[in-house]
Amino acid sequence: MNDLNNVFIIGRLTRDAELSFINTGTAVCKFSIANNQSKKKDDKWIDEAHFFDVTLWSKTGEALAPYLKKGKQIAIEGRLTQDRWTDTEGKARSRVQIVATSVQLLGGGKQNEQKESDREPGEDNEPAKTEPQPGTDEIPF
Description:
By secondary structure, this protein is mostly beta strands. It has one helix spanning about 60-65; strands spanning about 5-15, 20, 25-40, 45-55, 75-85, 90-105. A 5-stranded mixed barrel has the order 1-3-4-6-5.
């Protein structure tokens, strides 16, 4: 039987994504997310945040990098990898990260959300709606 290494997680970006390219020209997009969970401690529910580094490769990373901004809620599917190295003091170190195979943009970023009271009169955050032109056979959806 083969082992299984599959991760599905939803969280918010803790910083803007960083896009770079390796020597072969392949894009690598790196970012981190926070995943909040509630747990009961004594008689109270407390929130606990967990932070994960994520790497998204190739054209997917290149295409999504401009949209991966701090505060944006995303869903990630991928696998866990572990990097191992020896630091300058000779200590063995390691880090687990998520290598994403799929990323879905979910909610808006916290800094992009605008309170009702902050809007200018007549300001509308809804996209412009277009009416179908007479004589066209296209269905408008």
